[in-house]
From TrEMBL:
Chain's gene name: ffh
Reactions catalysed according to its record: GTP + H2O = GDP + phosphate + H(+)
SRP54-type proteins GTP-binding domain sequence ranges: 267-280
Function: Involved in targeting and insertion of nascent membrane proteins into the cytoplasmic membrane. Binds to the hydrophobic signal sequence of the ribosome-nascent chain (RNC) as it emerges from the ribosomes. The SRP-RNC complex is then targeted to the cytoplasmic membrane where it interacts with the SRP receptor FtsY.
GO biological process, one term: SRP-dependent cotranslational protein targeting to membrane
Complex and partners: Part of the signal recognition particle protein translocation system, which is composed of SRP and FtsY.
Enzyme Commission identifier(s): 3.6.5.4
Keyword Acyltransferase: no
UniProt name for this protein: Signal recognition particle protein
Family from the record: Belongs to the GTP-binding SRP family. SRP54 subfamily.
Amino acid sequence: MFDNLSTKLDKAFKTLKGQGSITEINVAATIKEIRRALVDADVNYKVAKEVTDKIKDEAMGRDVLTTVSPGQLMTKIVYDELTQLMGGTKEDVVLKGDPAVILLSGLQGSGKTTFAGKLATFIKKQNRTVLLVACDIYRPAAIDQLKVLGEQVGVEVYSEPENKNPVEISQNAIAYAKKNNKKVVIIDTAGRLAVDEQMMREIELVKRSINPSETLFVVDAMTGQDAVNTAKTFNDRLNFDGVVLTKLDGDARGGAALSIRAVVEKPIKFISTGEKMEALDMFYPDRMAQRILG
Ligand code: GDP
């Protein structure tokens, strides 16, 4: 097994013990070790550099070397810094309006439709009535997929298979929700294999016309650096409110969470950890800091 970061830090500081206070020179190797751990966990290099510069500043002022366990103290500085950088505390989705509307965006395959089913389950558990809306006008299979999920979780699915106008479908769905006393509307939009202009324009129009109380961007944590670039492209166009990181049940160490948060400055709100409808968690920055550092 590889050493986790705290074990590595303990080792690094053992050799320094007794040398007095911490200096630029004697901490350099440790900072490099932390940076490597972050990059290994998929944190984008630029973000990793900014983070370790902050950690260095924080450590410099402390009497790290004369403490009983400088490695542990340093590890705590790193955890605290990462937790703060990811927002400190969890952030909930905002459900405002009657009905409250949640718009989902993301690339095809990111886990958007699966998340729609999970979110519906999550909200239903809070005793609110939910309407799922299939707004993928390109893939009839996507409508069927949502219908199957809706049936599975006991939530009605609204669709207009013949209509090719997502703005109209969304507006009609909201009117339907009002009439049928559904308090939360979740709109699943079309996803593509790569970011394309038409898709961006389309979802931008949907957002403008329905003014959702929450726009979420869904992204596959396994895609590493690409996740950050995609997040940036979507945020530039949609100015979304929060991020959903999926497929965290795999090997991804979670560095994408830190990179996305640092680059787009939007909170991660949920993490998805499997294909089952229950595999959804709120995002806790401190737990992710732990995961990133191993
Ligand atoms: P969409 O194209 O963005 O709507 O993506 P889908 O919801 O269809 O998901 C694509 C694939 O990823 C499907 O096979 C899902 O079962 C799978 N998937 C979605 N979320 C997760 C997750 O959190 N973990 C794992 N392991 N698979 C997931």
